[in-house]
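YM 10:42: Protein tyrosine phosphatase sequence, as discussed on the call
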Amino acid sequence: MGRAPAVAVAYMFWILNYRLNEACHLLLSKRPCFPKLEAIKNATADILTGISKGTVTLTWQGSNCSTVEVSGLDIGWGQRIPLTYDKEKGVWSLKRELADGRYEYKYVVDGEWKRNENEALTSPNGDGHVNNYIEVYGKGSNKEERELRTRLTSEKCDLTEEERLMIRDFLEQYGE
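YM 10:58: structure's back
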């Protein structure tokens, strides 16, 4: 089904006034599927706050390995980006520009998936996995935008009527 489940859930959330979790639950009661709610939450926040970007640096300490990669972030779990080793500092690092939002990731060290205990960790997800995560706030975001983005990407996110109207206006501008 590809992206169709997420499109249906987003439509129910943005246009039909369902809470996001209610829309997902209703869809799942009709058909087994896997809508990516995090993508809908981030798209909602992007529409309402605009898209600003920030540069992040991820690091892995240690010279006792031959490759370090990262997976997750904005590329998904099926892709990997190699980190660069700095011999002088004994650190692997990756600089990457990301849009505002929360990103989960894991390191892949010599082919083995690992988390960095010195960086922020998620709670165990539905599969019991614990990942690293990073919150990105670009230069253009202010305190109100950060708070709005945090609310909209939370577990029980919902929209106010004013926010729904703003999303409808946005969609109508690009529908022509």
